[in-house]
């Protein structure tokens, strides 16, 4: 059977269109997935594993070009090259004045890093790429694993991986948008020099946190989301409490719609919490989040939001505006939305690998560039990785968050890329 020829160009999906005109050195729109093994990385084998992985993800061999009306992906002959880590996390990948791939693979001691530009894919798509990369690396590194005839639980075809979920599930007609929340509380402070991100990572037991969450009859996500809101509240001046703390929560749409896409396919839900005169009880915040998620995280609600976003893209007037005029409009819309958000909280969920590979893998991590304070979670086995990224020198919110966990008897192993007093 002959392989379908790889297209020379592709449209950006609906979610991807906002990233090229709004990326800059302060907010690169780059996120990182990392997998730490229990042995030192061998660069040559990692390069061979990357070459093998690229065969299954041809879209990742793309660069972004500017058209008259929109940006688009163009297939490139550039070969991705594994490098030892030498840059700050989530550094710039996309530059509209140069031709370069939209992802990088690097290593540091026992850790494999995948950094990727958000226009190419979302967290779930990037995770499938990294899982495939680690899978091939370990099979190439250990002869005994080759004989086990292992396989990943991600066997989507090229067509399924490159499917634009927004386009496929768009339904003209009824639509809805997130209600305008007005100005949200904003975390402020002195910024680190040189557009550097501070990463503070905590690793804790999934079982221990679930035990605490179950005492409140809630999920891990709601439990930790409530701790985040309370941690922010502790840093708010009294005059600022008139503004809500708005948590932006990216939601993977694949479980709501049948999709195995390795491209962007997500929605964003803004969760506002309004404070009263007195300090809220922890149970009140949990109850609010539970009720909010039960109401908003439904296929029907996501369908309405998807319809609205894609309808804007299909609007004749919007399509007819040249890209040079679209760019400032998109940037301004992004700026307004940004002012309606305090923080972002993203839970990638449970990461799995074939059981035979478990003795070789320690932990997975994920975090992203931001102009605010952002939290990303993922778990592997019993290790939950909680990563905060921030451009600020101050890290009081992060301290409140992790101290809340430790005060409840949960052991947390903390690491950071920047050491300050």
UniProtKB/TrEMBL annotation:
Protein's name according to its UniProt entry: Uncharacterized protein
Top-level taxon of origin: Bacteria
Lineage: Bacteria, Bacillati, Bacillota, Clostridia, Lachnospirales
Organism annotation: Sporanaerobium hydrogeniformans
